[in-house]
Specification:
It is a single chain. This protein has 256 residues and is an all-alpha fold. Helices cover 61% and strands 0% of the residues. The protein has three domains: 74 residues, no CATH class; 38 residues, no CATH class; 88 residues, no CATH class. The chain is built from 16 helices and no strands. Helix 10 runs parallel beside helix 12 and helix 15 packs antiparallel against helix 16. It is globular, with a radius of gyration of 21 Å.
Amino acid sequence: MKSKPPLLLTLDLEHCASDVLVGLLKNPATDASTLDRIAVHHHRNEGLMDMVLSHPRVMPQTLLFLFNTASAGFKKRMHLLKKEPLPGDGKAVVPFNDPGREEASGKKGGEADPQELEKRSLFQRIQKMTVAEKVQFALRAGKDARSLLLKDPNRQVSQAVLDSPKITEDEILFIAQSRNVSDDILRAVGKNKEWLKNYSVVFALVSNPKTPLGISMPLLSLIKVKDLGILAKNRNVPEAIRSGAARLVQARQKSS
């Protein structure tokens, strides 16, 4: 009797650690839908995408999605690896299987997760939108849609997500902590005075190695002494942040 794969249907592939993703991509048994989800959430990470390209179960629609979102250099690598998709009709193609196919495959390996199918359907809708439609949708969409739109390569779309009146402080904190968002998004968060009233957001921005130094350095003065000590020892942040934090700790200790 075959056992069901225990975690793949519930694993949060958007937020899980990079070593978990690498482990999945090195495993030749990882299913095609999991490869799809990794591609959608992490398509800007070309190291991971190289592993997706090399996986024996990667599907044509995943390759086409990567080709549509890839840099020129990555497209060249796809061509060299003979992974460049066949020419299509020029329209945006989504990587996910349609719900009917997923349900059919689910009969063999466990039932498909309804929430996962709903998210895939949402992704398909977004892929078919123009930039203007995405911008308008971002202003009124729910949390799941904002999460997908935030990764859109067009700055107008991702900025519209931040401009949404529905966006919450918890979402802003998660964005400030994330290494999977663009520099422009982190810069926009760091320039918003309302969001900077939340100390957790400030500390997250300074701790995030992707935050532009022009944003994180001025915020150092807002960091508490205890947290400055943590930053001074954090090898994941830029040297300028570590040394700046150490100087502030010394200065505050002398003045106290």
